Task: inverse folding
């Protein structure tokens, strides 16, 4: 009586084990299939973003060639006039402008600028910062939120225009913080795959008026210098925006190309894993069928 009961229980336990293994194999196949589909969708997105960035990069490079004289001309004025902070100044108040944007997925474009500014802030915690773009604000406010005077948003969605730079320059000139000098940190475009963090000088009216070789320029009074400072600041900001936009699009194009290649490699590995798992499930089912047939015979 007991032997018959045990004999009837053993096949039931074996069937349950086989069913459990079969369900586990099907669950594994389903999870691999879902992940494979997800990676394929990601690859489509990265390829589309690469194509869009390539088109925007071509436009940004053309516009950059037209904008470079604005920044180079303003920079040469400070160099030829030998503008510097007066030595008699009691306290040097510096102002740094971080030129970034609101968009990511473009490599180390934003973190590189913020790294340079963080190094400066570590040496001099009294420096004030203006963040152009939400990405620089998000990075710098973690440790230096008290140093941020202003944040300019909605940057990077459209191609920068001189009107945008003029509005930003107007806000900088109307700040209650009276700075003696400063810098504009931006990404200088080199090639499609390379860029470098660079800076442009910013000086106050007193610093320009006390320049050593300002006399080489004729008919300069305080009003003329003030007007030129406003125009030169807008010109340098416009130049920095164009340089940053071109570097950002080229970096995003490179990043999306690498992401598409990585997704392709992951798809190949997942496809191989899926085929191996499916073959293992089929082999196990055939073994169970053959074992059951042999047991009946």
Result:
């Amino acid at each position: 009586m007991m032997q018959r009961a045990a004999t009837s229980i053993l096949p039931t336990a074996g069937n349950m084990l086989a069913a459990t293994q079969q369900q586990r194999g099907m669950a594994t196949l389903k999870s691999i299939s879902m992940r494979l589909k997800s990676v394929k969708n990601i690859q489509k997105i990265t390829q589309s973003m690469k194509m869009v960035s390539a088109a925007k990069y071509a436009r940004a490079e053309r516009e950059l060639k037209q904008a470079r004289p604005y920044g180079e001309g303003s920079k040469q004025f400070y160099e030829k006039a030998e503008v510097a902070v007066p030595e008699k100044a009691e306290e040097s108040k510096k102002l740094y402008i971080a030129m970034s944007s609101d968009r990511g997925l473009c490599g180390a474009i934003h973190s590189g600028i913020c790294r340079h500014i963080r190094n400066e802030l570590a040496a001099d915690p009294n420096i004030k910062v203006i963040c152009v773009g939400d990405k620089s604000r998000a990075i710098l406010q973690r440790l230096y939120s008290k140093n941020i005077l202003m944040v300019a948003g909605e940057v990077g969605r459209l191609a920068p225009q001189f009107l945008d730079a003029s509005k930003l320059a107007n806000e900088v000139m109307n700040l209650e913080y009276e700075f003696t000098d400063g810098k504009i940190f931006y990404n200088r475009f080199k090639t499609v795959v390379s860029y470098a963090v660079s800076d442009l000088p910013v000086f106050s009216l007193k610093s320009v008026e006390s320049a050593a070789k300002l006399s080489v320029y004729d008919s300069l009074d305080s009003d003329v210098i003030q007007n030129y400072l406003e125009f030169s600041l807008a010109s340098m900001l416009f130049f920095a925006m164009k340089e940053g936009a071109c570097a950002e699009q080229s970096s995003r194009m490179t990043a999306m190309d690498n992401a598409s290649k990585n997704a392709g490699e992951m798809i190949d590995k997942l496809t191989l894993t899926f085929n191996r798992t499916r073959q293992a499930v089929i082999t196990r089912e055939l073994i169970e069928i053959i074992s059951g047939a042999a047991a009946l015979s």
Summary: The chain is about 65% helix and 10% strand. Residues 56 and 127 are 35 Å apart (CA to CA). The radius of gyration is 32 Å. The longest helix spans residues 2-80.
